[in-house]
User: Fold these one by one.
Assistant:
Number 1:
Amino acid sequence: LAARLQGFGTTVFAEMSALAVATGSVNLGQGFPDTPGPAEVLDVARAAIGTPLDQYPPGPGLPVLREAIAAHVQRFRGLVYDPGTEVLVTAGATEALAGAMLGLLDPGDEVVVLEPLYDSYAAGIAMAGAVAVPVPLRPPAVEPGEVSTAPWTFDPDDLRAAVGPRTTLVLLNTPHNPTGTVLDRAQLELVAELAREHDLLVVTDEVYEHLVFPGSEHVSVAELPGMRERTLVVSSGGKTFSTTGWKIGWVCGPAELVTCVRTAKQFLTYVNGGPFQPAIAAGLGLPDTFFAGVATELAGKRDRLVAGLAAAGLPVVSPQGTYFATVRVPGDGLAFCRELPHRVGVVAVPMSAFYLPEHAELGRDLVRFAFCKRDEVLDEAVARLTA
Ligand code: PMP
Ligand code: GLN
């Protein structure tokens, strides 16, 4: 294995999903829904298969999808992007993020990133030869058997201290995986202030933009003054439309920055997902009530699982957004997650996987459970955990 990729073995998601299958466990590890997405989306993909849409789409993505992405981001964020030059379709948000790192960073550049961090970030930064500089997000205190609704949060001084002479980019994620925290306007203002002061680029991963629960509001840092011009906004259809296997993602930003990502993308996948592109375009055009409904339904699932985890005696942090609730376990989270399927038939993921190797200790006793599952599946998991 190349030196750049030392330490990046098999992802914990793959390991835990395989363990779920092997043990017949309820899989609350990898975050993917277990019900199909909206018929308005699925029907378009079905109809597209067997047509010329099976062939290579244009490099930046089908115009119908780029236009739908631009209209969607204008509707929900008030941001205007030119679908011709400022929108790029990618193979999931994963490729948009890796492409941004490869297209924007030089070896030795520093990337400020909230930790815990989604596992592909550290790999993307490493593949670009750059260096991740973590800013810790810390969980609220919570007693066993209780639920905290306070968010994981960072200390503004830690963020300020992370920016140095080699910093070129801040990589944000809101709503945040794995903590479920939704960054508020004041936190984003601080990022914006630092970015403007130090002339930094920002890449913001907003794949959970519609999975935000009552009481919280999704704000994109690109909406703040002086930020659109230095920010790439990354999202994906996977979570919003329950199509995580389709891998239709995108990035919006000023043409100059989007071109950097496109340059990398051309030689990673070139293009992707022909028949799925018009389908995601149809989804992005669904009425506001659809998007609100996604969040409302998921909020109910959050409450169901969070109450069940607390009933099982765990200290639980209830998230403001995403698919995930986090708990502290007695002892080692990785050992706990490797044992749980055999002991009770439930799979979760250890949060040590979301920390840089040198900080794995910070996440050692933390575990993430996904609640994007049918109610009966959540109930079964809770019954097994409380038994
Ligand atoms: N970013 C975050 C924070 C995620 O949780 C995920 C999905 N697990 C991705 C990116 C990847 O999205 P996609 O499947 O569209 O590549
Ligand atoms: N984003 C999902 C999660 O965090 C899926 C991750 C993956 O399989 N790479 O669970």
Number 2:
Amino acid sequence: TVHRHLSTTSQVNKIEKLTVFGAGLMGAGIAQVGAQSGLKVILSDVTDKALENGLNIISKSLSRVAKKKSPDDIEGFTSNILKNIETTTDAAKAVQDSDLVIEAIIESIKVKRDLFGFLDEKAKAECIFASNTSSLSVKEIAESCSNDRQARFAGLHFFNPVPAMKLVEIIKTPQTSTETFEALKEVTLRMNKSPVSCNDTPGFIVNRLLVPYLLEAIRMVERGDATPEDIDTAMELGAGYPMGPFKLLDFVGLDTTSYIAQGWREKAQSGEISKELVEPIGLLDKLVKEGKLGRKSGQGFYEYDNKK
Ligand code: NAI
């Protein structure tokens, strides 16, 4: 099993208490897998309504898991895991006793830095801080904290939907300590995920390779080289991908992809990523402007019947 690869050389306090900030799509998923792995979880957000939304996402997802794992006692299975999750809007209280904080709030460098700067004063010295950001620099977020905390700071990038996707990218900044990395690896394995390690670079591993590929697929359509349908069929049957690029673009959201490309264009100015990879695309901008964002809006490259 994967546990074989775990280093046993470094001493780390075992993580028992997890605090998740942000009860949206990702935060709810992270709280759920944490609770399923036996951690004591506190889920925190700015409003009671957001917390309620998070608990709803978790309950629905847990019932789906229960249908497979414990079909005779769906209620019991679900409530047994839900009892590991507490909620609060009080950020200071949420971290006072925590071993690990995972932040999954809105993708804004300022809001994330404000939150971590505040939490740095409130959490135990040993508490590890992690951000689920997909497009921001982890180092820049970490710099809102003291030097000691920066050694206990890393990126922990989960994938949507969290309960189903096995991968977690652990992002090390130059300040992240080996002990912190090992503790995060251990806790993600306990969550039944497969961790990989990457430096703090644009897109980390998955998006760094995936986004340029998706953008080039759009350019092919824009040039009239092939249709979205044929490109999807080609990549599914010829490259063995489970989903062609246009199905994936519609699933992720065209606005999200466009937003990531925009951020990278800024990084291309300083040479962190090559300019050609993220050249603006008229067709993508046009679809986003028209509100054709993919599955969630009912239309992207394909049409969807969201009433079903
Ligand atoms: P979301 O919009 O579903 O949820 C964000 C939640 O954060 C909301 O409930 C909001 O009320 C809350 N929030 C905002 N400011 C807060 C604060 N100061 N303190 C506590 N809670 C606060 O967003 P989503 O999609 O869950 O994304 C969260 C993070 O995860 C972002 O950084 C995003 O880039 C990243 N991410 C998203 C993925 C996706 O597929 N949606 C995949 C991987 C990472």
